[in-house]
Design a protein that fits this description.
CATH class: Alpha Beta
CATH superfamily: P-loop containing nucleotide triphosphate hydrolases
Distance between the termini: 22 Å
Structural class: alpha/beta
Number of helices: 10
Pfam families: dNK
Active site: 94 (proton acceptor)
Strand content: 5-15%
GO cellular component, one term: cytoplasm
Strand order of the largest sheet: 2-3-1-4-5
Largest sheet: 5 strands, parallel
Number of domains: 1
Order of helices and strands: HEHEHHEHHEHHEHH
CATH architecture: 3-Layer(aba) Sandwich
Binding site for substrate: 47, 59, 70, 95, 100, 161
Shape: globular
Protein name: Deoxynucleoside kinase
Amino acid sequence: MDVQTAVSREGAANPGFFLAIAGNIGVGKTELTTRLSQELGWVAYYEPVIQNPYLDPFYKDMPRWSFHLQIYFLSERFKAQVEISKGSLPFIQDRTIYEDAEIFARVLHAQGSMTQVDYENYTSLFGVMVDFLRKPDVILYLKASPETLMGRIAQRGRESEKGIGIDYIRRLSDAYDAWMVRARAYTEVMEIDTDSVPLQGETPAFRRLVEDLKRRYPRQVELPLDQG
């Protein structure tokens, strides 16, 4: 069975609800993915950051490593999406495959850190891959100001992220805002500005979000945790 058949058959037979958590570097996607997964009993899928062999070199030399990094992320997220499509449980994904092309590759190319040839090859491959994959049922878009994001990046202290500059973060934020306009054409988008609506810790805003998701998608919350 080829990949297209496998994804199409499994995805059509067992369509688990798909909540995507999207947003810039340092906005709090991973923490929120974990907490919502625990609260709702939904399966969590995380971004493959720690295992990525290109991340450290990339932040030291973006033009040299941008294509390698983006291909790695594309490959890993495609494999994750294939696995996701096989399940029947609702799930949450910490950053989607769509952000790779819509945000990161687009910004790297625009700022001259990815050549035209590499960008065309990348987007061609991305276009083939996403034809096999389902789109999120809902995108939860987390926002914060570039200054806030830089503070959070510094606070978590990842060695590989020490070279990130605020101009790069600003470009990514602008690209996210532009993507959300396009994304609303094919899925629901819930937007939260985490500068004014804090979700870290047991805040009223976090509790409202949990209750909102339960109210919107009650059938998903009722699914047993051991279903598979």
